[in-house]
Amino acid sequence: MSLRLGDVAPDFTTNTTEGTINFHQWLGNSWGVLFSHPADYTPVCTTELGMVARIKAEFAKRNVKVIAVSVDPLDSHHGWIKDINDTQRCTMNFPIIADESREVAFAYDMIHPNADDKATVRSVFIIGPDKKIKLTLTYPASTGRNFAEILRVIDSLQLTANYKVATPADWQKGQDCIVSPAVSDNDAQKLFPKGVRNVKPYLRYTPQPNA
Ligand code: BEZ
After folding, report:
1. On the CB side of 1, how many CA atoms lie within 13 Å of its CA?
2. How far apart are the first and last CA of the chain?
3. Of 76, 142, 143, 145, best ligand 1 pocket probe by most atoms within 8 Å of the beta carbon
4. What pLDDT is stored for residue 114 in this prediction?
5. Which residues does 79 contact at the CB level (< 8 Å), separation at least 6?
6. CB of 141 closer than 6 A to ligand 1?
7. For residues 120 and 111, is the Cβ–Cβ distance under 8 A?
8. Which residues are identified as catalytic?
9. Residue 108 confidence (pLDDT)
10. d(CA 102, CA 36)
11. How far is CA 202 from the centre of its chain?
C-alpha cells in the first residue's frame, strides 16, 4: 500500500556506501530526505546525486540528513561514485542504499510497474524528527528533480511546525506568510506582533514570525 502524509516512515536496516544503517537510528532527531533513483550509471541520476552532494551543507543547516536509494549493488555504487565525483564538481558525502533485495523500494512503493517493473521511479520522502512522512513526490525517470524546491518545502515545513502559519504559492524564506485559517482575528493580533494584513476574512498575511 502506498504511504500517506502523517504515516510513520517504514524503518529498515540496510547496506549503504557508508556502512550498515538502521534508518530510524541513523535519522536520530534530524529531519530526513530519502530519495530513489532508477539505476546507477545513468545520466540524470548522476546530475541529481552531484547536485545534492554540492548543496549538502544547505540540508545540514536545516538539520536534515539525506540518503539516496537505488536497487543496484554496493560495488556498482562505489564505481559510480567515482564518475559522479569526476563529472559533477563534487565529493560524494552522503550514503546511497544498495537495495538489491528491493526491501526499501517495496516498503516505500518506489516501483511503479506500469512505468518500469524493475527500476524505482524518482521518489522523494521528507521525514520529520517524529519519523512521520511530511511530503511525498514522484517524478518519472526522464525528469531530474529540483532540489531547491525540496529545500524550500523543508523551510516551509519547519516554519509551519512551529508557528500557526501556512506559506503561499512560490513562497521563499523571509517572505510574508499566511495566518492559519484556524486562528481567530483576536488571537492573530496576539500571536503575530509584527502585524496582520487582512485581504479577505480568510486571507490574512503576516511577516515571517521568526525572520
Ligand atoms: C537517468 O538517470 O538518466 C535515467 C534513468 C532511467 C531512465 C531514463 C533516464
Report:
1. 5
2. 40
3. 142
4. 95
5. 40, 41
6. yes
7. yes
8. 45
9. 98
10. 11
11. 30
What is the structure's pLDDT at 1? 66
Query: Ligand 1: which residue has its CA nearest to atom 7?
Result: 141
* Percent helix, percent strand, percent coil in the chain, to nearest 5: 30, 25, 45
For residue range 36-68, what is the model confidence (pLDDT) as tens digits? 999 999 999 999 999 999 999 999 999 999 999
What is the 72 CA–ligand 1 centroid distance (Å)? 14
The preferred substitution site among 44, 120, 145 for testing ligand 1, maximizing ligand atoms within 8 Å of CB, is 44
User: CA-to-CA distance for 11 and 130, rounded, in angstroms?
Assistant: 13
Q: Is 142 in the pocket of ligand 1 (CB under 6 A)?
A: yes
Model confidence pLDDT, tens digit, residues 117-144: 999 999 999 999 999 999 999 999 999 9
Distance separating alpha carbons of residues 91 and 104, to the nearest angstrom = 25
CA distance 42 to 36: 13
Integer Cα distance of 203 and 211 in angstroms: 21
**pLDDT classification of 156: cutoffs 50, 70, 90:** very high
Q: Could you give the CA distance from residue 159 to residue 88 in angstroms, rounded to a whole number?
A: 32
